[in-house]
Amino acid sequence: MNEFEEQLELDRIKIKNAVRYQLPIEITSYTLPRNMEIYIRKILEIFLEECRQEHMYECLNFCLGELLTNSKKANTKRVYFAERKLDINNKEDYELGMENFKVDTITNIDHYLELQKKSGLYIKLVLQNKGDQIKVEISNNATMTVFEKERVQKKLDSVHQFDDMQEVFKNVLDQSEGAGLGIIIIVLMLKKIGLSKENFQVLSEEGLTTTKIILPCNKRVFAGNEILTYEFVTMQDKIPVLGSELKKINTVFTTESYSLLDLKKIIEKDPMLTLILLKRSVKKNAAEIDLEKVLTMFEKNELEDIFSAANPDFEVVEETEKLLKIHDSSQKAAYFAYNLCRNFQSEECMVTPKEMYTLALISDMGHIFLECSSDDQTKYVQDLSGEFEEADKIVDMFYSGSCDSRIAMIYSKKIGLKDDYAGILGCWNNLELANKKIIYTCKLLYLAQMLTGYGEKQLDFYQIDKEILGSFGINSEYQFSDLLEKLNSGFAD
After folding, report:
1. Whole-prediction pTM value?
2. How large is the average pLDDT for residues 260-270?
3. Can you state the angle between helices 271-285 and 321-343, rounded to 10 degrees?
4. For a Cys-Cys bond, which of 101, 267, 336, 403 suits 448, CB 3.0-4.6 Å?
5. Secondary structure element (H or E) that encloses residue 28, with its range
């Protein structure tokens, strides 16, 4: 394996995490050399593989090639005009500059690319899956002129006139800056894989020009995963519990100095022990998820029954490195969420810090359920997926982790937790699905999860939603890292 292939394997891990948490993948280049174009095409391929949307590759590969080249040319145009002391926003200067732009830049492209780099002009690609959609953004940090905007809009307005490429070549010709066919061909190609007019936008404002593309995922694969998720949760009768943790619980019951506090210290570190307790508590009070209050609802003999090996609500599973890691991450996310809820108090938050702790602790239950799925569940998922076209893709996507939050939401409803709590567990990484009542609480859980993932080097700062960070007064990686450091120091204590 050469150095390029090794880098791609490392990138695959990051892309897998990004797809699971619905985070963006971002690539920036100042000059877009040939090796960067090859790298981008491979990243696109891996991204679509992880999203199980490989059917989009041929079309998006062509579109990215065109749009990235257009962004690069737009940046080159800026330095070319500046060097010739022409005002790119003046109509006469613009027409004068475009007379020899193509010839001059092609014959001396390295010079102009170096000027672009020195001027800080970049091209950026962003790929992201959000629910049942694939989002693609290509941008460059130069605002379009009035003339460029008019030209692009004219092409977009003309797209509806054409049904195929032959009509385009016959009726469209614009030699001022090339044939002018690119954007029309792109839209026609995208329409073939589900693009609507509303899902293709070219925006240019505040020093940035961005082309946004939103494509629906393969409906058969997405629908198949929806069905598998519901059926998987229906079969989730037992909560997997680590034998070592259950042993700790039962040790507390047999000591003379038994106390609820000792019991709480063990349960609050384990997402599955917490889930077992919540499942039983629903019968007494479905609204309560503060662990301290939940524990006081039961007598000692009732708690012994809940955590007895005879309880049909759970099954004992063996420790694995992966399960221990999930448990550790859940505990850290819970601690972070608790403190964030305390420090960023707001009337918009619908839970107390202690309730926030519980929600964050159990938020990864879907990941644990999939990791501990029974033979019967695995076989049922395989058999059920076989009823759909593209069965292999459906199963691969289901076990990739992209369904974790949905599993958590559906299971929470199944055991009787409040709909608002289930909504938070299902929407924290996709706020577009969250209702107004829970959105602030979702943001807190999102921030706790991002701090945890960043600290474990599972994601990069650029992938974190800047709007959400800004709502908590975090505007730089330094501020984010500083917050993480303070939370980590408290967690270690």
Report:
1. 0.87
2. 94
3. 60
4. 336
5. strand 25-29
